[in-house]
Amino acid sequence: MHLIHSSDFNIQSVKGFLADDEGEGLYQLALTASAMGPCLEVGSYCGKSTVYLAAACQANQQTLFAVDHHRGSEEHQLGEEYHDPELYDGQVKKMDSFRTFRDTLSRAKLEDTVVPIVASSAVAGRHWATPLALVFIDGGHALATALSDYRSWASHVMPGGLLLIHDIFPNPEDGGQAPYDIYKLALASGLFEQLPTINTLGVLRRL
Predict the structure, then answer these.
(1) Per-residue pLDDT of the chain (207 residues; tens, 9 = 90+)
(2) Catalytic residue among 69, 70, 76, 141
(3) Edge-to-edge, what's the strand order for the sheet holding 39-42?
(4) Environment class of 119 (CB within 10 Å of its CB; exposed 0-12, middle 13-18, buried 19+)
(5) Entry's InterPro entries (predicted)?
(6) 101 burial via Cβ count (<10 Å: 0-12, 13-18, 19+)
(7) Class of domain 11-206
(8) Catalytic site residue 69?
């Protein structure tokens, strides 16, 4: 992937929790899917997954919608395990990753490809009508949040399009179960077929 290894941008400089093989998987899957239409991700954080997806979309002159309220998930809040002081806005006393996200897009030269939507899935998806070639869900891991992400976007995946869900842990001892729960929900719906998982990245194709 040309952009990951360019001299003026290093994907490893972007904060995030995406493994290298998952990032490369996102890029390759989005490269195929974005030939059919626009893509959308839920949970941009500082833009690591966004870069992989958007670079693929850019190659096809396509658009990536990036949905995130940029106030962080439960684990990013003050005093929690994954809290990052650099992303805390002391003035409003809230976590805010949007400025860092915009900086990532600028450095990666992807501002003409990504449409940031600063809102929750429930708000952003309320009047959504655009068919999507790929939806990547990597938002909050509370069950209510994951369900909202799934219900807001899964129905907009076009036939032949992809639904990707990050942090799939079949064994509860390995990690939280909400992403795996919506992954199983998608399979049980009969609308999706299972493709090979990449590390913890669940991959489903709309029938």
Answers:
(1) 555 545 578 999 898 889 999 999 999 999 999 999 999 999 999 999 999 999 999 999 999 999 999 886 666 656 555 556 666 666 666 788 899 999 999 999 999 999 999 999 999 999 999 999 999 999 989 999 999 999 999 999 999 999 999 999 999 999 999 999 999 999 999 999 999 999 999 999 999
(2) 141
(3) 114-117, 64-67, 39-42, 132-137, 157-165, 201-206, 192-198
(4) middle
(5) SAM-dependent_MTases_sf
(6) buried
(7) alpha beta
(8) no
